Amino acid sequence: MALLQISEPGMSTAPHQHRLAVGIDLGTTNSLVATVRNGVPLCVQDEEGKVLLPSIVHYLPDGQIIVGRKALATQAVDPRNTIVSVKRFMGRGLKDVAHVETMPYDFVASEGMVRLRTIQGVKSPVEVSAEILKNLRIRGERSLGGELTGAVITVPAYFDDAQRQATKDAARLAGLNVLRLLNEPTAAAIAYGLENASEGTYAVYDLGGGTFDISILRLSRGVFEVVATSGDAALGGDDFDHRLFCWILDNAGISLPSDRDARRLLMKAREVKERLTLDESVPVRMTLEGGDEVDLVVERDVFVDITRPLVEKTLRPLKKALRDANLDPADVKGVVMVGGATRMPHVQEAVGAFFGQLPLTNLDPDTVVAVGAAMQANVLAGNRAGDDEWLLLDVIPLSLGIETMGGLAEKIIPRNSTIPTARAQEFTTFKDGQTAMAFHVVQGERELVADCRSLARFELRGIPPMVAGAARIRVTFQVDADGLLSVSARETTTGVEARVEVKPSYGLADDEIASMLKAGFEHAQEDMEVRGLKEQQVEAMRVIEATEKALAIDGGLLDEAERAGLDAAIAALRHAAEGVEVRAIKIQLEAFNRASNEFASRRMDKSIREALAGHKIDDIRI
Amino acid sequence: MLDLHQDYFALFGLTPVFDIDVERLEQAYLEMQGKVHPDRFAHLPDSEKRLSMQWATHANEAFRTLKNPLTRGHYLLELRGVDPAFDTNTAMSADFLMEQMEWREALGEAQQAADEDALEDLARRVRAGSKALVLELARQLDVTGDLDGAADTVRRMKFLEKLQHEINDALTALES
Q: Is there a contact between A127 and A449 (Cβ–Cβ < 8 Å)?
């Protein structure tokens, strides 16, 4: 007897083919995971029914790692091994981090990204973040009942390349397949815009725990187009806590609190800040370990006063973004407030005064980013039919350039360029027989290299020896849809591809990540192999499924021989995927990719022609 | 066969003239990104992802070039075999150079005095100057076919664009 398949009209895939995808907001203070279930986005709860996971990782002497609320409770007891606000360290050197002197950590003096010495050894911020992501991955898998196809991870729009790469590396370490790095304000705009069917120019003001973003977007008929973005990757609610913390120390006459006392006072400061959102004054009473007594009352006016410079600091990027977008405050139709720190009344007042309108606060500023990320993850995983997809056009926040003579930065890709984007630049040799060249890639708006962020140094090798000035080396800078930069180079007179060796300034090298991945599975070598095999099998089946679907629609684009070739490649890949040899699957995947290139090009071609043809029909109507 | 080397106007189905319908350009661009953007290919095999990134990059570059009057004019000149030679050809009319000097002086003074209003005022004057040049360029490229004159206009526009950037940078510097 045949079973009737019932599916809702418009659903592109049968329910059992629904791919499990999540959106993760990896925040400075809290992190959360959301997903789309039966078309409805929702935040995934932990076993206690809580949605927010405090972004805190506690390393214990016995090898255990505690993440979240439980670590929140122990942070004042064991501050050195309890890492909070690790996002501030991502892709950053020690000298870039503000208030290092009041942080209770054992920093390791090293070049590149900050490292922390814990009872479980030296940890990079990437590893600490990976623990938070792992926790959320497991939460997502438990709730959805299966392995995740992929995740969208959000990052501050103003994150530079090193910070983005560090986030992506952390996700990889956590065993997540990253579908996309998505800018936090853009994620919020998706959630807000779709819910309210908004059209027009909107600003998203996103003040999180440790980062500030402002993005200006144009919303129209299913298109979310970021026009300009700006911000401060080291400004957030944490800084308000810190101001209050300093005020408490001053007024209580305490000069040098212990690590534990400092942490307790910081926690107290945060609590007071939060209570001042509703209360006019909040008492602070505490006995410190050293015997000092704190007995103060914080008035809201005092708090507003001491944090006013921070609020004003957010208005500068705001003006810059508007100028870049060529807009006046009055051109903005609505201002969406995102991030827990926007709950502070004086922040809302300042933003309202700037734009001359009440900001939009009807969304939960803590969850809106994760919800938008989940909606985007659902689309990227291929769970929606073509017609109701939306188009997202985002930009890079900071100009990319290279160092030229005299320590000057030459901009190659300007800020606010729509991604993906690429720019090529030609260079030549200055010595006879020169076969190598060194480059320094920087990010930022300033003229001097010293004032920009150093991203990487790379060397080109294998340039064919020629007389000085004869070689034409074309270096291409490509920024992908995650906002990540890659570099390739070619000598154009001979066509020789130069080898590019990139040494990231504040990132982890590939072999470091490989060894971290390995260390994570140290006691479970088998686990790692099983996982590796499973990943390859899933990837192979995914590719086969997608190609068969494409062949069903566009099979006619191939002649018989081509079709036979592609079918053979599919069969070989399927055969390999049914086996247990990781290497064999990898080889067949590569072979398959080569075999399907032509088909993919013709499909792309057809699709673009259709887009243009559709356009021509419109013209005739006009 | 469509390829990544065809000219940008053809890519968006536009006639290669200066005075284009910008709304139509935007429409065609969005339709194309709707087809080729990497978000449409995130769940597909690597070969398709690669192609998508190439096309989306190309569409962005083409759109950026055609949207901005200066780059559109420059691009049209190149299509018609004229190189505006920004680096080598600096011959400008005396009037234009005088005006440039005056504006640069004004920029320097406003910067020194940290005078935001003066900077904003200067920005407005430069914008008005740019607008006039756009009209001139449209006439030269689309009506009279005066390509040498058009190259000269594009060079002037380049001057003004640079000045505009410097004014913006000065304004940003004032705010921080």
A: no
Residues 156-175 of B with CB under 8 A from A: 168-169, 171-172, 175
Q: Of A454, A588, A473, give the one whose Cα is nearest residue A111.
A: A454
Q: Write out pLDDT tens, residues A275-314.
A: 999 999 999 999 988 788 889 999 999 999 999 999 999 9
Would you call B51 and A616 a contact, using CB atoms and an 8 Å cutoff? no
Give per-residue burial for A321-349: e unless 16+ CB within 10 Å, then b: bbbbbebeeeebebbbbbbbbbbbebbbe
ipTM of the modeled complex: 0.90
CB within 8 Å of A206: residues ≥ 6 apart: A156, A157, A184, A185, A188, A212, A213, A214, A215, A231, A338, A339, A342, A369
Peptide bond into A420 cis (omega under 30): yes
| Alpha carbons A379 and B91: distance in angstroms, whole number | 54
Instruction: Phi first, then psi: give them for residue A206, nearest 5 degrees.
Output: -120, 100
> Per mean pLDDT, which range of A32-36, A106-110, B116-120 is the poorest?
A106-110
For A572-596, what is each residue's pLDDT tens digit? 999 988 888 888 888 888 888 888 8
Question: Is the pLDDT reported for residue A18 higher than 90?
Answer: no
Closest-CA residue to A236 (of A265, A270, A260, A263): A270
Which positions in chain A touch B42 (Cβ < 8 Å)?
150, 179-180, 380-382
Rounded to whole angstroms, how far apart are CA atoms B104 and A352?
Answer: 36
Q: What CA–CA distance (Å, rounded) separates A533 from A523? A: 18
Catalytic site residue A87? yes
Q: How far apart are the first and last CA of chain A?
A: 54
Question: What residues of chain A, 274 to 303, have a C-beta less than 8 Å from chain B?
Answer: none
Partner B, chain A 400-439, Cβ-Cβ below 8 Å: 417-422
Q: Give the integer Cα–Cα distance in Å for B128 and B139.
A: 17
DSSP A340-392: GGGGSHHHHHHHHHHHTS--B--S-TTTHHHHHHHHHHHHHTT-S-GGG--EE
**Residues of chain A found within 8 Å of residue B1, distances taken between Cβ atoms:** 605
Q: Are A403 and A30 in contact (CB under 8 A)?
A: no
Q: pLDDT tens across A441-491, in order?
A: 999 988 888 888 898 888 888 888 888 888 888 888 999 999 999 888 888
The pLDDT of A235-250, averaged and rounded, is: 94
What pLDDT score does B96 carry?
A: 83
Measured distance CA(A433)–CA(A436) in Å, rounded: 9
Output the pLDDT for position A6.
34
Q: Which residue of B has its CA nearest to A478?
A: B57
Could you tell me the two tokens for A562? 């081509």
